[in-house]
Amino acid sequence: MGEEEDASRGPIASRSSSWAIGLSAWLARSGVTPNSISLFSIVFAGLGAALILFSTHPIAVIGAAISVQLRLVCNLLDGMVAIEGGKKTKSGPIYNEFPDRVADSLLLVAAGYACGVPSIGWLSALLAALTAYVRVFGGAVGLPQDFSGIMAKQRRMAVLTAGLLAQSIETLISASRWSLLLASAMIAAGSLVTCITRTTRLARSLERP
């Protein structure tokens, strides 16, 4: 997650892990700002997108999967440095949301082009942004931000990572890109369902007396 208020932090199990606590504490002591960590997530996403787009070599595809996970590590650490490290700033919510949307789009659009169906990449990116919009809109009208759904960010990236790892194996035996296409389709469909379920929950909460 990015630099944010406690109420807008998604539930991430690894936040309580010893490696995350130790690394975030070291980053806080080193003078690294949460906002710079947020921006660095775009660097990893860009690297992953480039590897997805411009190479079909299994090692490159595995490198893309690692880049996806490093992007998530940045998303985890920036919030921890901001909140637990006491480095929260007023501009933090901007860095919490905007880099995530850029990183999502880079990776998902690249996956669509790489599997030969650009439209599914653009659709995945659009729906991923919409899931975040519904969540943030809920917070804007005074409700707790809703991180629920079958294809929230961590699950989108988990599906993409699994698709990339499967693709690295597939490229050893075939020139097809079915693994990446399946992952992209799952992300698009799951994000659509997530948008619907979050919006439904939001409407019910607003109508509740």
Plain-language structure description:
The chain is built from 7 helices and no strands. The protein is globular. Mean pLDDT is 91; it is low at 1-5. The protein is mainly α and 209 residues long. It has helices spanning 18-30, 34-54, 58-83, 92-114, 118-140, 153-173, 178-207. It is 75% helix and 0% strand. The longest helix is centred in the last third of the chain and has 30 residues, at 178-207.
Portion in helices: over 70%
What kind of sheet is the major sheet? none
What is the name of the CATH class?
Mainly Alpha
Order of helices and strands: HHHHHHH
The CATH superfamily appears as CDP-alcohol phosphotransferase transmembrane (TM) domain
Task: Indicate the radius of gyration in whole angstroms.
Answer: 17 Å
Q: How many domains, as an integer?
A: 1
Q: Which architecture does the CATH hierarchy give at level 2?
A: Up-down Bundle
In the CATH hierarchy, the third-tier topology is known as Four Helix Bundle (Hemerythrin (Met), subunit A)
Structural class, from secondary structure content? mainly alpha
Taken as a percent bin, the fraction of beta residues is under 5%
Number of extended strands: 0
Principal-axis shape equals globular
Oligomer status: single chain
> Counting H and I runs of at least 4 residues, what is the number of helices?
7
Low-confidence stretches: 1-5
Protein name: CDP-diacylglycerol-glycerol-3-phosphate 3-phosphatidyltransferase protein
Transmembrane segments: 36-54, 106-136, 181-200
Keywords: Membrane, Plasmid, Transferase, Transmembrane, Transmembrane helix
Enzyme class: transferase
